[in-house]
Amino acid sequence: MEKRLPFVIAVILSLTLALAGVRWLTLVLTHQQHDAHMLAKARQLGRVVALYPQTPPPALWDALTDDADIHAASLYVEGQPRLQTRNQVPGIGDYQRVELRLTGQRLLSLTFYHHPMPWQQVFVAMLPMLLGVLLLLWLLFRLARSGWQQRQQIATFETEAKSGQVAQQGSFPEARARLLGQQKRIHTLEAQQQQLDGLLHSAAWLDERTGLGNRLFFEQRLATWLQESEGNRIGCVMLLELSHLDGVADSDFEPWQRQLVQLLQDKAQGWPDAVLSRLDDDEYGLLLPQMPTKDGQSFALGLIKDLERLPKPKGLTGNDWLHLGWTLYQAGDDTALVLDKTAMALRGAQLQGENAVMAADVESMPQVETGSVRWRTLLDQVLGRQSVNLVTEPVHSLDGDVHHLRVRALITDPKGQKIDDSVFMPMACRVGQEEAMTKLCLQLLLAKLDQARNRGHRLVFRVCVDALLKPGFSRWLQLALLEVRDLLPQLMLSVTEFELAQHGKTLAEPLRQLGTIGVGVAVERLGQHSKRSPWQDIPPRMLKLHSSMVRQIHRNSEQQLWVQRLVQKAVDSNTEVVATGIVDNDERLCLQRLGVSAGEGPLFGHGAWDPL
After folding, report:
1. Contacts of 45 (CB under 8 A, 6+ apart)
2. CB-side neighbour CA atoms (13 Å) of 149
3. Which are the contacts of 487, defined by CB distance < 8 A and separation ≥ 6?
4. What would you measure as the largest C-alpha separation in the chain, in angstroms?
5. From CA 497, how far away is CA 436, in angstroms rounded?
6. For 176-210, what is each residue's pLDDT tens digit?
7. 278: pLDDT strictly greater than 60
8. Which of 48, 50, 56, 90 has the alpha carbon at shortest distance from 70?
């Protein structure tokens, strides 16, 4: 009320001044009306006199001029006065004389008593109304400015509320305090949910001490790779064991173990899709998909040398504390058999009595050529002939309908064997041709979008991240997509969760730009690695669960809870969740109950790839 009092006083004062001004203005107008009235009387008298050729009768003249407003009246004929009023001497006051020339050289002269108002009085009479009007205008300006400021405050407050960054001080303190309280409760709930997710993830698949995957995590990923039905279906399994650590104090062992784990993580990140786990107190497992014999031997020897260079903790002496056994696997092998062969190789390394590496049964595995010269020559020929074929495989909704089509690129080597992009694209990255190969594949794909729209199909293509991170390629891709912007709802480009976690914001930014243009982004292989990715920062249109998260999910409550939480987050981001590697109907029904939209795997069959 105290803030409104000056405003109320100003309104009352402005109204008072306006009313006073109206009164004075009425007085001014009254004087003006009096003068107009006198002039009208003069004209009326002139019209009556004009009816007589010379002069009207004296009695009529006296009756016409007997008016309180007429001070004196005279009628001149040929310049001589013929009729005059009796009062010829003006009294004290202001007078106004009006002369009207009539016919027959007659002149009518009338003198009226006049009350003029000087301009000073007129100004004084108008001043209150002028001040009142100015005060009202000032009040209107204040009201308009106050309304504008209030709208600005509301807009600012809405912006703060939408961004989730409401300041403690500012306009609308009561609403601000309530909103801050709500946001605090929301943040608390989100933190609790994240903590719950972390506990679920850790309890099911992570080693509590190092944060790496545990034995269950490692064996599930190995079993999944052994069921792979596409690409280069071989890889390496390595077991690393530390010995003679009993004499090392905990205070010395823990910082040394952190350095050891960091070195293992750095080595694993250098190989695509590598999985690192802590299997036992002093035993670590490495799963390196698509690694051939030559690279496996080089990797194992290099890892041993790097570990030996670490500063040893006190109490660890000699050169008999580090042993590594490894073997190759191929798709279709039994998980237990592969792990047994790797354990046998580890025992063989330990029997040598010093830090050693031992391989088991790698000569009998099929060998893969990885020479850079061979691949560069092959890819140059493919680029020159543009001999890349695009093929598709349907991904079904859990009800059985076609959900979308996976698109893969195939090339043919000189022996006539088909090689898909999961094999030749990493080699293209190795020889520096990933940008040219990705451009060629995308050009062919964009040319097929109109056909896909006519058939009602959505296409999902795995894009090469190494090419996408290059600014020149990213600009080319955006321009190419803008040329077919009306067809972009049919297209999704996918990356893996490992790539998103590895590159972070560097990869998230070009993916967000693709989403702004209208291209859907899919994140594949969720749950394959122990490290989780910030996929919600993009956000993607589709998430694909790794098959290790789907295996026997109807019997694993931890996996069900993890998938259920993922689906809830995806719904908040308007994202679909798709499963891979579905083997039986029990898994399908469980995933459908958890809210998963679609799936692929042996249950739906692995038919031949259809040309796009």
Report:
1. 64, 65, 73, 108, 110
2. 9
3. 446, 449, 450, 452, 453
4. 160
5. 24
6. 666 666 667 766 666 656 655 555 555 556 777 88
7. yes
8. 90
